[in-house]
Amino acid sequence: MINLNKLLPWLSIRSKLLIAFAGLSILPLTLVGIYGIVSNVRTMKEIALENLNHDVQTIKWNTANFLENIESDLRVLNNSSALQQFIGKRESFPERAAESVLPRLQNELLTFAKTKGIYYQLRIVDESGDELLRIECLSATDSGSAYRVAPPGELRHAGESYYFLLIDGLAGDQIAFAPAELISQDNERVPVIGFAMPLIGMRQRHGILIANVFVKNLLQIIEGKRHLELGGKVVLATGDGHYLYHSEKKRDWNRLLASREEDNLQRDYPPQVAVRLLSGNEGTLTEGIDEIISYAPLFSRKIIADRPEPSVGLSVPVVVFESVSRDAIMGSVRSFAWVFAGFLLLFLGSAIGLGLLATQQFTRPIAELWRGAGIIAKGNYRHRLRVETHDEIERLADQFNAMAGSLEGHEKEIQQHRAKLEEMVAQRTHELVEEKTKLQVVLDNVPSAFVLVNKEFRIQTASATFAAVTGLRFEDVRGMDCRAVFCKDGFCQECVCRQAFLRGEIVSHIDRTDDKKGGERFIEHIAIPVKEDGLITSILEIITDVTKRKRFEEQLLRTERLMAVGEMSSIIAHEFRNSLTSVKMIMQLQKESQRLRRSDKKSIAVALDSIGQMEGIVAELLNFARPKPMEFRVERLNTIVNESLALAQPHINRYGIAATKALDAALPPFSMDASHLKEALVNILLNAAQAFESNGQRMNGGVIRIRTKKIRLSKVLRDLSVAGDVESENSTSLAKEIVLGKGTECALIEIRDTGCGIERDHLGRIFDPFFTTKTNGTGLGLPLVKRTVNAHGGIVMVKSKKGRGTTFSIYLPLAS
Asked: What confidence tens digit (pLDDT) does each residue in 22-75 have?
């Protein structure tokens, strides 16, 4: 049901009643009148469309018959004995064909043209474009006049490329046609439809048969009697919109080609209408234009001899349409509409007049009620209404008076409750302030920072720990976007507040960042959605510095791993060494036997070499499980580097690698274990040399560069280490963190190779015991390197890119 109070809230009661009276008076009349107009319009439109479609289809059917007659004529000519004999002569005797057959062919074509009376020209053109024969009408405008044979001097030469393009790709039984405009002997323009058929003999094509038909014969079909007698127009247009014929604009049969006129369908009609008319389809148009149009393509059927499938047809598309103005169809409808509108206005005026008279009887009492209600609404509950209508409005006024008396009594009670309520509010406010103070004290003393973010992800409030954890002052970031504050410098890798808002659940993650001194920090972010009535209104983010916890976890994990590796290494080494010793003794005794053949002794020698390699691996395991204690003496680092390079040089040379060094002479001597450090450097150099062998293929032209330098650290370096013997009684307490502070003086040993590099997934595991990617490696070399460097209080770091090489950097503090 329509609610006028919502649709038109500004209308008064009187206006609404007037609308109701007027609606009841004119609504039935309006519905009947509209139905009559719509029905009349629909009927007139259907009649017009039916007649227009009938006319267009009649034109299309007549033109199709016209083309079939031309098709039949051309087939008759092509199959005539004279033309077939002419083609045969040209195929057998091309030089003498015209002399013997051409007169007979001329007479036959001349007789045919006179009989038909619709052709302007009949022509035969050879393959070079020269006219061999032309029969033409003596008059350019009268198709029924006399015909003549063009003398040899008037025949054209090499000027018929248009017709060769028209028949391109046609077989001998196919015909192509297109509208054209020719120039007669008297320089008059002759509009024609040119038909072309290839003349094909037994072996090849010998020319074209061309028949030019007067266009006026076709237009007489278009101008036939029409069913719709409301004026209108018939139009014949090309596919690009130019008029060939227009019953109102262009009726001169001798001026039919579009290139001669500026009138264009696309100028006279809107673009969407022109596109529909020139689409090549049949249809009708009734919308978007002030005409009703029926349209269809002409010459859409392709002419083929003795075959149903389509072939090449009209080269220039042509469309015909007939239209009639809407004004001509809708004239009677408009007359009826004006009469109907007059009656409608008369009824509307009468309804409004009677409505004004009726509504005046109760709008005045309502106005009095409105005025009195306004006085009572302002607080004057003593005011009373005086309305005497002896109906429902008077009873309503009595209810207003009763309501005013009741409100007057309630006002006194409200004043009493107000005083008591103010006292209760003051007491409750004091209690809330105390609770808020206690909660703030608790939050401020928690080591984590609490940050409240609204739905727009802007920071609203924060606890006192905010500055200590984030390094930012709350006053500087209040109201800012949390991602712009925390994610800018890497303090937060991704915005947990936005994730929590999208998921509707608690989201947390730990980010690694650097402090102001360059040290490593781990920050935990927890985002908790705060909901009211099931909707997220804000996000509570808890920020905690968990650096100490992360380091402790890493220390504990590394200690447990090394303890397990050491224990396993010790057990394997003890068991293997005893067994290998027994096997080795037996093999040596067998080797000394005089009864063995030379081949057997060679096999035993190979086995003893393998046992020797196994003893070396056992020695490495024992060295890792129970390393020799460090013996520190003051040594020169460059001397240790030179000796290490000398020990590894034969292995490096075997790989065909160049080794260069740049040693800092300013490096002072300091305390170190020369033996262990030399062993560590040799391990790195051997690994660098082996890096130039990938998938069994050696890389040529490799370089290993060794550099030493005295430096001062620009940032804090940290590493976790397990020093000493992992089998000692106090092994569980050996986990420690090595920290080289910013500004510490260190000796840097840098070994860089240009080998194959280390896989990114392997880079974090190269110092794990027994991790190796080599087929004959033990995975203990680099862990021993790390243990040695850590025992010196130093840190070893690795950088590598696949295919670009690896760099080992060893930082040894110069002062303990």
From this structure: 777 777 778 877 877 777 777 777 777 888 888 888 888 888 888 888 888 888
Enclosing H/E stretch for 718: strand 717-722
User: Do the Cβ atoms of 135 and 149 come closer than 8 Å?
Assistant: yes
Helix, strand or coil for residue 702? coil
CA–CA–CA angle 808, 810, 813 (5° rounding): 170
List Cα–Cα distances, 738 to 465, 626, 720, 724, 784, in angstroms. 29, 22, 6, 14, 17
Whole-number Å distance between alpha carbons of 623 and 152: 119
- CATH for 224: 3.30.450.20
pTM: 0.39
Is residue 438 domain-resident?
Answer: no
* Shared domain check, 754 and 698: yes
Report the amino acid identity of residue 524.
E
Where would I find the beta strands (DSSP E) of 440-576?
449-454, 459-462, 507-514, 520-532, 535-545
Contact predicate 672/812, CB 8 Å: yes
646/591 same-domain check: no
Distance of alpha carbon 280 from alpha carbon 317, whole angstroms: 8
Mean pLDDT to the nearest integer, 288-301: 77
- The residue segments making up the domain with residue 321 are 58-255+295-325
Give 507's strand partners: 527
Task: Pull the structure tokens for residue 44.
Answer: 């007139």
Asked if 553 contacts 564 with a C-beta cutoff of 8 angstroms, the reply is: no
Alpha helices in 182-231 (DSSP H): 215-222
- The confidence score (pLDDT) of residue 745 equals 92
Q: Which of 458, 502, 463, 460 is nearest to 483 (CA)?
A: 458
CB atoms within 10 A of CB 730: 8
* Residue 598 and residue 658 in one domain: no
Whether 663 and 761 share a structural domain: yes
Measured distance CA(67)–CA(59) in Å, rounded: 12
CA distance 200 to 78: 10
Query: Measured between alpha carbons, how far is 382 from 395 in angstroms, rounded to an integer?
Result: 19
- Please measure the distance between the N-terminal and C-terminal CA atoms of the chain and give it in whole angstroms: 94
Structure tokens, 155:
């025949």
Amino acid residing at 447: P
3-class SS at 257?
Answer: coil
Q: Are 770 and 779 in contact (CB under 8 A)?
A: yes
Q: How many domains does the chain have?
A: 4
Give pLDDT tens digits for 497-514.
888 888 888 888 777 777
Q: Which residues pair with 707 in a beta bridge?
A: 662, 750
**Which 3 state secondary structure label does DSSP give 119?**
strand
Q: Are residues 597 and 656 in the same domain?
A: no
Distance of CA 355 to the CA centre of its chain: 63
Contacts with 536 (C-beta within 8 Å, 6 or more apart), sequence order: 455, 501, 504, 529, 530
Structure tokens at 128: 């070079």
Q: Report the C-alpha gap between 25 and 502 in whole angstroms.
A: 59
* 350 belongs to a structural domain: no
